[in-house]
Amino acid sequence: KNMFVRVSIPLLSMVLTATLFMSCDAFTNRPISPISTTTSRLTKKTTSSSKLYLSPEFGVENARRLFYLWFFGASGGGGIAVGAFPQMAKNFQEIQALKGVGPTLGGENVGLPPLLTGYPEDLKLADVQKILNNKMTVEQMVAKGPKDSFWAERGYLRFESFVAANKNCNPLALRAVFDAMTTSVSTVSPVTAQELLDAFKDDIGLFKRTLLLSKAKGYSAIAFLLFLLGIAAATSADAFASGWFPDWPGLENFPVSLINPGFWTIPEYW
Q1: pLDDT tens figures, 30-43
Q2: Is the model's pTM score more than 0.90?
């Protein structure tokens, strides 16, 4: 969740800033003052062009400015995202490795489809209820748990503290109960955690709905992040091509043009 905020805010700022920039020149039908005397297909194209963002009057120099704005402006958020994806993959693999691991009370399933939760198998109802019936309060879990982070020092419930307070419980059930309380991998507000644990204890259906909603939020955040990164990448690539090799015929049928006429022909039009 924190990673999503760090990445999405700068990328959203880039989208808004570039939209304002483009709205001043790119989406107008009136001619703009030429900055460069370069004559190219970019300034001759009709409005039926396959270009996603740039109007025919945009110009080579403006295309280069737009590239600098998007590429360097979005590189910070993109770098954070790229660095976070390996950790996300690692977390997913660790959860998948919990299949059949640890003690279990067996019996009836909770009824959570693995396809929706991302877990390797359904949970056992008895395993979940054992965790929810823990007599310790969240405040006690935090107090007795490790103080290995900034948030733990501030009284937030860490996943490590939650696990330590529920010894001899099923690892996958522990992960699921914690996931239902937050979209973060390892941290949750103590107030929120206590309220949800008390509510789940009396209503297992609420636990199921809350867990699925938490998973949906997480998946939506990732999808939205990829959407923003896609916009940044597409706009940067479009502006780069229009700014440095606007006469390359491959711009009309990208990405097929990477093979025919071939990306190796780009230097001929630089």
Answers
A1: 343 443 434 444 44
A2: no
